[in-house]
Design goal:
By secondary structure, this protein is mainly beta. The chain has helices at residues 34-39, 184-189, 252-262, 271-282; strands spanning 26-32, 41-52, 68-69, 78-85, 88-95, 104-105, 118-129, 138-141, 157-163, 170-172, 175-183, 191-197, 200-206, 215-218, 224-226, 232-235, 238-245. Strand 4 (78-85) and strand 5 (88-95) form a beta hairpin.
């Protein structure tokens, strides 16, 4: 929608109320990966927008002359109209329809922009996105929106952040979550496993007898924590949810191996194991 209607567009309203036009704001979407969010990134985007007319330098005038005083409002930018109301006839001030409140009209109009002072074009805008932003955030860039007619104030460019889904990691605020599915031998015997992080894979050691449902924490491997001014005050963690894969299809040889284990002393849970399990589950 158009911005700059109403009283906000009268700069220094006391000085005759002449209007300085303001360009409208523009919205663009930027899709970011979690890697880009973790470091901050500079993006160049092509924006279709109104720019100052190159032919008349935004004046709207073919000969570069400033406009003449508007004959309708005599340069004030306002006209007075009589309006009927419950208190009888009242005088209402409104924007001059001839000059749109600018107080001047251009006689010899620029043919490139039809006297408007702005034309549609594309501009490459460089956007610096700070680290730690989140999807749904809007970053305002002052003065990079649509240009305003006759050298008015340009609008802003509002950059809406969208997050791309990561193949391995899920974001929860400044923390990242990875679901690790171990095979049974590694969960039982321990071993080394690869964990994806935003800066590359990291090897971690799984201790023997690691239970499904355990959460391992890698401190500082999450995203920057930022305040409302995008200042960093900390870093989140990478949380690893440990799951254990129970095979569903075994061949005869594998079945025999598992059968043999069944009668071993340490394979079935003892009374204290059961007690601890339920205590952890409901405690």
């Amino acid at each position: 929608g158009s911005m700059g209607g109403g009283f906000s567009s009268f700069f220094g309203g006391g000085g005759g109320g002449r209007r300085v036009r303001r360009g409208t704001d523009l919205r663009v979407k930027v899709r970011l990966t979690l890697e880009e969010i973790s470091t901050g990134v500079e993006k160049k985007i092509k924006v279709r927008k109104l720019v100052s007319c190159p032919q008349c330098s935004g004046t709207g005038s073919a000969d570069g002359r400033e406009g003449d005083t508007c004959p309708t409002c005599h340069g004030s930018g306002r006209v007075v109209r009589a309006q009927r109301s419950m208190f009888g006839m009242m005088q209402v001030q409104e924007e001059c329809p001839t000059c749109h409140g600018e107080g001047k009209v251009i006689r010899n109009k620029c043919t490139h922009c039809q006297g408007e002072g702005v034309v549609r074009d594309e501009e490459i805008v460089t956007i610096k996105i700070p680290a730690g932003v989140a999807g749904g955030m809007q970053i305002p860039i002052q003065g990079k929106g649509n240009a305003a007619p006759h050298g008015g104030v340009p609008g802003d460019l509002l950059v809406l952040v969208e997050e791309e889904e990561h193949p391995n990691l899920v974001r929860e605020g400044a923390d990242l979550v990875y679901n690790l599915l171990l095979d049974m031998p590694t969960a039982i015997l321990g071993g080394q496993v690869k964990i994806p992080t935003l800066t590359g894979d990291v090897k971690i050691t799984i201790t023997p007898g690691t239970q499904p449902g355990k959460v391992l924490r890698m401190r500082g491997k999450g995203l920057p924590e930022i305040d409302q001014y995008a200042r960093q005050y900390g870093t989140g963690d990478l949380l690893i949810n440990v799951g254990v894969y129970i095979p569903e299809h075994l061949n005869r040889e594998e079945k025999e191996l598992i059968e043999k284990l069944k009668d071993s002393d340490n394979i079935a849970p003892g009374a204290s194991d059961k007690k601890n399990f339920f205590k952890n589950l409901f405690g």
